[in-house]
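Backbones bend. To wit:
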Amino acid sequence: MSQTEDYERAKRRAEAKYQFYVHAAVYVAVMALLVIIDMLTSPGSTWSIWPLIGWGLAVALHAARVFVFADKGAIVDALTEQELRNSGDDKRDSGV
């Protein structure tokens, strides 16, 4: 893999992480505002839990995509290189 490809991959990962951090910060700010509004306008009810759960699930899925499933490209690249090496060995074995 060339340095340009390494740089591009690193840049995409950095951008994905930055986008997640922005998403998480906006979530925290909006949820804090909704909880405050909920407490001031309807102290007997807690309707703010529903957007907190719904959007929280979206943030959790975003985090999983960025931090857990992000190395898929590296795995696919390694498997592709292995397949290319194996196909070269097969051609030599068959005399092609």
Q: What stands out?
A: The mean pLDDT is 86. The two ends are 27 Å apart (CA to CA). Residues 3-69 form one domain. The chain has three helices and no strands.
